[in-house]
Amino acid sequence: xxxTTTRSVLEKVISEDLSEIWAVLDGDEKRKxxxxxxxxxxxxxxxxxxEKDSPKYLWCLLKGKVKLFKDGIGGRPQILRLIRPxxxxxxxxxxxxxxxxxxxxxxxxxxIGCLPMxxxxxxxxxxxxxxxxxIHELSRNLGGSDTRLVNLTQKHIRGRLAEALLALKESxxxxxxxxxxRIYLSREDLANLSNMTTSNAIRTLSNFxxxxxxxxxxxxxxxxxxxxxxxxSKFG
Length: 236
Known about the structure:
This protein is of the alpha+beta class. Helix content is 49%, strand content 21%.
């Protein structure tokens, strides 16, 4: 049985963010989720699951920021996808009956809910609407991955970095000043998101600063000219 704190958090998330999936469940299904739901906290850069691990949970980011990444040639990681509250992740491998082909880690201290995939599988087998929810999510993610693959392989460095900055804005938003990205990335993470070396990321950031497109203050990045960023991203 979920403890009082876990139940309180789940009820809050359900009422605010999970109405789409919660609405397709009946009373017994909701009870099973409430009993099996647990909450875990991960520190900055802590691994949530690693490539080749066996998938066991449906993960749901409640608070914080998470990256999905895969080690490439020479061990250099490539960030595949950004996870924001409240999004699900980590379930594709279970449905595919295979180990994880990528890893997940927290960008910052993050609170993550999880459900055993065995329960998720049981619920989807008996609830067609829930099954369609996951089909929709998987299809949408696949379409996004296809677009990102083309962009990372065909755009020049400036276009890739501009696209990465816009993706960070879309995923995590801006601070109260309406210019500063609400995520503070290392240059290495920004390079791994943009499929370039760290030195190229630093050089391109400096060029954007010189062109008065952004301001860089440590790990803080302020977007001064979003229209220019979009133009660079589009024409790559």
